[in-house]
Each structure stands twice: as C-alpha cells, then as structure tokens.
Specification:
The protein has 11 helices and 7 strands. A 4-stranded parallel beta sheet has the order 5-4-6-7, sandwiched between helices. The chain has a 3-stranded parallel beta sheet with strand order 2-1-3, with helices on both faces. The longest helix has 19 residues.
Length: 230
C-alpha cells in the first residue's frame, strides 16, 4: 500500500471527511484491520483565509509547496490537497515535488465524462467558480461550465467561509443552495458539481434529482485507488 500525503485544515471538517472516507474504503476493499497509510499536515484555517481574500496566490503557492516537499521527504507517495480552492496553486506544487499530485478537478472531470454530461453547474467559493483552474480541467474534457450570478456567488462564498467551514448548517442556507441549483438547471446544467469540500455536509443526495458530483468523495476515492494500485 502506498502512503498518502494529505494537506488539510481548509477546513478541519472536510479534512475529517477525507480521513473517514479513505480509511473506510481501504477497509472495505482489504478487510480485516486494514486502514490507510497516510501523513496528514493540517494548516490553521485562520492563516489561510487572508491569502484567499487578498488573492495572494504566490505566497499560497510557496506555503503549500513547502508543505508538499515536507510530506514527500517524510515518505508520502503522492499529494492530496483536502479542499478545492487551494488547487489554484496545484501547478506550482507540481513543479516543486517529484511525486504525483492528485488534482480534484481532473478527477471530477473524468467522472462527469463517464456519465456523458457536457454542461455542468459549478458551486464553490468565488475563487473556484470565477478563476480558471477548475473550469480549465473541465474544458479540456469538452465540458462547459455554468456558474451562478454575482449575488449568488457572493452568498455561496460567504456561507462557505462563515458557516460551513465553522460547522454551522442552517436550513435557510440549504434552501438557498437548492434555489441556486434550480436556476443552474433552468439555464442548461445537466449536473451539479459540489465544488467545495464542505458543501456535501450541507447538501445530501436525497435533496437533489439531478446528477451530482461530490468532489470530496471523488477525490478521496481517487486517493484510495492510487494507494492500492500496483
């Protein structure tokens, strides 16, 4: 079994989901008392948010690359960033380590293609929705991306940082998310990407009838497949 190198803390709630999903799937596949071999480096989310607010991608890239190098030095066989937004510096990290980085958007695009969907709605932080790093992976696979309007993007971003990342899950917030998803569907989205690793803690499969892509589950599953590959 290969050793996974996880960068977590953005937020701790979704990082806990990665830890749970990966270990559950490893045990389901191998049985017995098997669990994942992993090295987890968690950052302080409070230190992360100012870089997001100021869009200081250079500093973020240096910071996460240093963590990735330390994980590699400690024996990790790959890098997993346990969140969508930090993947804006994924290419920088790849340039600074010699082990693979499993990219959350690339994993998601593969699953969307399997379901023969060509137009997808994307929910996440403003960075994930507005910057090109996530949408580029989709467009390379021939998938067009729809994002909510400006007011809705502002709402999603603030709810993720102020509520979901703090473990606060309000019914009115869930209702607003479902309304935004409904609008994306009316605009032509054949499916919806839950493109923030906290969103699946709020929105459950039972809430939706449209094909839904849980990036946390897809990414963690890809990590398991890497760990168990020959």
């Amino acid at each position: 079994m290969k050793t996974l190198g996880l960068i977590g803390g953005t937020s701790w709630l979704s990082t806990a989901e990665y830890y749970r999903i990966i270990n559950q799937q490893i045990n389901q596949r191998l049985g017995g008392r098997n669990s994942a071999k992993m090295i987890l480096h968690c950052i302080n989310f409070q230190d992360f948010t100012p870089l997001v607010d100021s869009q200081n991608w250079h500093k973020m890239g240096e910071w996460f690359s240093d963590i990735a190098r330390r994980l590699q030095h400690a024996g990790a066989d790959c890098i997993i960033i346990c969140a969508n937004t930090p993947h804006i510096v994924a290419d920088t990290i790849r340039q600074n380590v010699s082990i693979p980085l499993i990219h959350i958007a690339e994993v998601t695009a593969k699953e969307i293609l399997k379901q023969k969907i060509s137009s997808i709605g994307l929910l996440g932080t403003k960075i994930t929705m507005e910057q090109s790093f996530f949408k580029y992976s989709l467009s390379r696979s021939g998938i067009s991306t729809l994002i909510p309007g400006q007011n809705e993007r502002d709402f999603l971003h603030s709810s993720i940082l102020d509520e979901l990342g703090a473990g606060i899950f309000k019914e009115e917030t869930r209702t607003k998310y479902l309304s935004i998803i409904g609008e994306l569907r009316r605009n032509g989205a054949e499916g919806i990407i839950l493109g923030c690793t906290e969103i699946p803690l709020l929105i459950k499969p039972i809430d939706l009838t449209v094909p839904t892509f849980d990036t946390t589950m897809l990414h963690a599953t890809a990590a398991v497949e890497f760990a168990l590959a020959d």
